[in-house]
Amino acid sequence: MEKDNVCINCYNQVDKVAKLLKLGQAELDILTIPKRILTFSFPVKLDSGDIRYFTGYRVQFNDARGPTKGGIRFHSEVNLEEIKTLAFLMTLKCAVVNLPYGGAKGGVMIDPKRFSEEELEKISRGYIREINNFIGPDMDIPAPDVNTDAKIMAWMLDEYEKLKGRHIPAVITGKPIPLGGSKARDFSTSIGGAYVLQELADTFDMKLKKTKIAVQGFGNVGMNIARILHEWGYKVIAVSDSKSGIYNNKGLDIKEVIKHKEKTGQLLKFKNSKVISNEELLELKADVLVPAALEDQITKKNADKIKAKLILEMANRPITPEADEILLDKKIFIMPDILANAGGVVVSYFEWVQNSQNFYWSEKLVLERLKIYMTDAVKALSKVCTDLKCDMRESLYINAVKKILEAERLRGNLR
Ligand code: NAD
């Protein structure tokens, strides 16, 4: 097979599992070469009257288990290798939580802060015009990702429906509720992570009011998980954003912290709290550490200083592979991103189901069903972990890879 399209990062990530499962070349090809890669450029007339060409990507990694699913990001550092890797991770994530989907990812190489709202709308519509023949409710279903949101999904949906001449809300998820979005979608990633933590509470003897939690990042994911865990009665002792962190060993009143941040635009100067740096937050003596900001926050430089018993990876790839080894040696339990932050894609799946049936669910029903998906996945993985005596990340990969290869085998694409 032509090897030009191999995803190098995917190869590195799957290598260990490939050895454990004794995979052959055809199986490795399925796991490292995307099924379809679209690279394109499209023109947009800017506010100044100039025409500029933008580069876009859409990678549909594997669709053996169902239509591909994954977000579209707008970022100046978007590149094809990164999009391939993220599409591969989406394939694993959907398999881990048992969604009838494959994985995809897309992006446009732009710094969205440098464009007006009108320009962003034209870029969003231009992107959809390029991929419209390759997406659809039973083919590939995009969603928001870094720097894209419900407003952008609404423009993209509108462009797609104009091209097709009919309503097809299930083509895209993460939409505003009046256009077919799901209840609870905006905090689904965070509450999904909180359900995972709750499922682990007995194993790790995490008692309400006693368990101390530190959360890095106070954006959509970090703020909502801090709020939910505080509401449930856990002691959130520290939170941080890109500017600074705040700490109180007796626990912070997160509702008040949110009000303070909304009023002043910062966490600093919150009453009864001590200012700490992001490095200090990561190294606090907490029971649970929740990285919910960026990738590569725990590296070989600071891994040895981490004191938490459990790390819930809400951000994507917050721990480097070298740091992972150090933390495992220290017997720190890591709940990996592809399960911890899968709540968003589960509720995206619910949105697609609701759009397909034209029948909409209450928030209560969405959350009940989300809890079942998240806790079932934790239970299934804990069993793989015990049976195979491997760590959680290896178990997740083994579990997902087996499901994807089984689907390929049943289709006759593998012996
Ligand atoms: P966001 O932009 O809303 O928030 C990011 C937060 O991190 C902000 O508060 C920012 O100030 C803070 N931050 C930035 N640099 C920091 C640093 N060095 N130290 C501490 N804080 C820092 O983004 P988000 O949607 O909350 O996403 C956070 C992470 O979760 C990302 O890795 C994202 O890929 C992942 N994720 C998000 C979703 C989702 O549904 N939003 C789903 C899956 C994964």
Describe this entry's structure for a reader.
- By secondary structure, the protein is an alpha/beta fold.
- Among the domains are: 34-169, Rossmann fold (3-Layer(aba) Sandwich), CATH 3.40.50.10860; 187-335, Rossmann fold.
- The chain has helices at residues 8-21, 25-32, 80-96, 117-131, 150-164, 188-200, 220-232, 254-264, 278-282, 321-329, 337-340, 343-357, 363-388, 392-410, and strands at 36-45, 51-62, 68-75, 102-109, 140-144, 212-216, 235-240, 245-247, 274-276, 288-291, 310-312, 333-335.
- The strands form 2 sheets. A 7-stranded mixed β-sheet has the order 9-8-7-6-10-11-12, with helices on both faces. A 5-stranded mixed β-sheet has the order 1-2-4-3-5.
- α3 links the parallel β3 (68-75) and β4.
- α12 crosses α13.
- The longest helix is centred in the C-terminal third of the chain and has 26 residues, at 363-388.
- The protein is globular, with a radius of gyration of 21 Å.
- The two termini are 17 Å apart.
- The mean pLDDT is 95.
- Nicotinamide-adenine-dinucleotide (NAD) binds at residues 189, 216-222, 240-242, 278, 292-294, 314-316, 341, 344.
Task: Please write the string of helix (H) and strand (E) elements.
Answer: HHEEEHEHEHHEHEEHEHEEHEHHHH
Q: In angstroms, what separates the terminal alpha carbons?
A: 17 Å
Largest sheet: 7 strands, mixed
The CATH architecture category of one domain equals 3-Layer(aba) Sandwich
Mean pLDDT: 95
* Each distinct ligand: nicotinamide-adenine-dinucleotide
The outline comes out as: globular
Strand order of the largest sheet: 9-8-7-6-10-11-12
Beta content: 15-25%
Low-confidence regions: none
Separate helix tally: 14
In helices, the fraction of residues equals 40-55%
Task: Enter the CATH topology name of one domain.
Answer: Rossmann fold
Instruction: Kindly name the structural category.
Output: alpha/beta
The CATH superfamily of one domain bears the name NAD(P)-binding Rossmann-like Domain
Briefly, what CATH class of one domain?
Alpha Beta
**Rg result:** 21 Å
